[in-house]
Amino acid sequence: MKREPFPFVEIPEDELHVFGERIPDTRIYEKEGPEEEAGPWFEAVCAVAGSTVSPGGGSMFAPVSRPAVHKRIKEGNLTAFYFYITSTRKGLFGKQRKTRELPLVYIPTSELKAWGQELEERMLRLGKVSREELEEAKPDWPEEFWIRYEQGQRAVIYDVLKRLESFREEVSKRSSKYAILAYQTLHDGGRFDQVFLKDSKRMMGDLSDLLACQYTIIEVVEDGKVCTFSETNELKKQAIKALGPISRANALESEEALRVEMEKGGQK
């Protein structure tokens, strides 16, 4: 029986400036930079590779030890992303924090799962375990959880699109030149708010207020025209700049939360 090729994560050649050069004879991508760059680097890694874990988390997806994970990485049989921090930010009280000597290391969980499956199949062939034992060891809640989760994501998309349609109808009926549709994520779901304005004077203030209360801006009407995605983003940037540090952080967090929900829901 012909074995399927291992599902390695592929990194586009034109994105190596983001992930770093690949070490010869391995699948290690090394990058270095200041601590401020580590967060965006990690988000880029997850965008390309999907969910990732450190070598110590490998045992969650394959029955292996941390040394076994490092060994497989060095042998070129696992993709790994390394980030060496060259300088750190100062702490809360202005003290310079120490720079870590070891790199941040992350591995795609998809590859660990594939490795784990290979090991299980090998154990089955050797009679070390039975298929029944493997099945019994699996928790019974994940499938039910993901069904509920995916239904929730689809519901978010449906609610946004439905409310967007009624918002545009209301704008037309009122002949509003300035209007805002916003969404706030809550523990028990979410809620929409819409604002209709006669002039532009209060629009930026209302945008800032909504963002400070962790609303996500869905659509903006300015001077009688629906703003494009880039125009709306520019208005949001201006509104967020007017906020204080804490409100600004809350606004950015809520914007990112709904973006993720919309992306996930749109993929179902």
Question: What's a concise summary of this model?
Answer:
The chain is of the alpha+beta class and 268 residues long. Helix content is 49%, strand content 18%. It has 2 domains: 13-138, no CATH class; 173-266, no CATH class.
What does this protein structure show overall?
By secondary structure, the chain is an alpha+beta fold. It is built from 9 helices and 9 strands. The protein folds into 2 domains: 13-138, no CATH class; 173-266, no CATH class. The chain has helices spanning 16-19, 35-49, 66-74, 109-125, 131-137, 142-174, 203-212, 229-241, 245-266, and strands at 21-22, 28-33, 52-53, 80-85, 104-108, 178-186, 189-197, 215-222, 225-226. Helix 6 (142-174) packs across helix 9 and helix 7 (203-212) packs across helix 8 (229-241).
Question: What order do the helices and strands come in, and which of them pair?
Answer:
Layout: H1 16-19, E1 21-22, E2 28-33, H2 35-49, E3 52-53, H3 66-74, E4 80-85, E5 104-108, H4 109-125, H5 131-137, H6 142-174, E6 178-186, E7 189-197, H7 203-212, E8 215-222, E9 225-226, H8 229-241, H9 245-266
Parallel strand pairs: 2-4
Antiparallel strand pairs: 1-2, 3-5, 4-5, 6-7, 6-8, 8-9
Helix pairs in contact: 6-9, 7-8
